[in-house]
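Continuing the batch. This is chain 6 of the set; chains 1 through 5 are on the previous pages. Same settings as before, nothing changed between runs. Recording input and output for traceability.
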Amino acid sequence: MLLEIFLILGGIIIYFLVSKKKEETLPFKEGWWGKGQKPDTEEDATIRPFKVETTEEELSDLFRRLDQARFTEPLEDSCFHYGINLAYLRKVVSYWKNQFNWKKQVEVLNKYPHFKTKIQGIDIHFVHVKPPHLPEGQSAKPLLMVHGWPGSFYEFYKIIPLLTDPASHGLNSEHVFEVICPSIPGYGFSEAPHKKGFNSVSAASVLYELMLRLGFHEFYAQGGDWGWLICTNLAQIAPNHLKGLHLNLASVTNMGFTHLLSILLGRYLPRLFGFHEEDVRRMFPFLKKGLYRILAESGYAHIQATTPDTVGCGLNDSPVGLAAYILEKFSVWTDPEFRNLEDGGLERLTVQVPTGIASFPNEVMHTPQAWAQKKYTNIVSFHFMPRGGHFAALEEPELLAEDILQFVGKVEKEQLWTKKRK
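Output for chain 6:
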């Protein structure tokens, strides 16, 4: 208890030292992220079809690298407590080389239409899926879905049909979506920025321009992980164009005095701070479920935020190293208890846009509604989900789809979008 008090007091002191006046909107960040100087000519805004392809040469190189991988021996009974279990990684690599059907996976990736377009000097890749059929008189609502790290647009493959054709999957079909899933610049098939300074606001500006280029001046956005921050920034850049914001992670990055005090006393006086019983269960004891877990899971973030090129050399050169780096996060971020298994169980500104939050129990860090509403001032839907973790669209597509559908239904029925604009 004494240690916890010291940590909270230290946090309060740091907060007052570094806190800055908050703004309510963000400017659109128009940059040039391509190679060399920005040309004088107007950028080619053509939207080009794209197809995922691989070659025999690429596969041969991959198999060579898998054959030459150098493994170390894991500690006995270490499971996933020190990262990925090396004995299990050997099994993954064996499956990857001898059983995985690469050509079939390429077909799966090409299941939906892919496109590319040049925005601010770099190629942006996205999947664009329209409803297979629409009832007469009904129009599809555009929905931008943004992934995070270490994910990709593929995370949404299971949920796309539930949103574009909900009736065929036993879901409420009052609202049907046209889904746009981009690859964040530098991820998947999107070109990486060639200049310093690209951040979440830059990414939000690029994706906002993408939606305008597709002809969508009013749309919904959904995201978790980096998708949470990018979509949040988008809501701050274009609040009059975003009809609603749905998140499956809502982190508070600018902690106020009340937030810090609630960490210290919220376990004992939950109602005073607006905490629900489920908030208390997920958050406390805070050292174990909050601080220690974040410290245990955020080492990668410090490396990638400070010296990404160093670790990037190894990850880009070794497919086995990259698999280990990513699979470990897919394990423990899905369920922290998976670290006990050998196979791993495989703010800045306020947001006034109508917001829905699906809070999954095994998320890396739980944010109570009482905290979230300090930033997202118009929360119209907040649900404690019965199961699932960090990769919600991939793990529990039906639960997430149902929550998105009810959220949009509420926004549309109560005309919250219209009220926001007045």
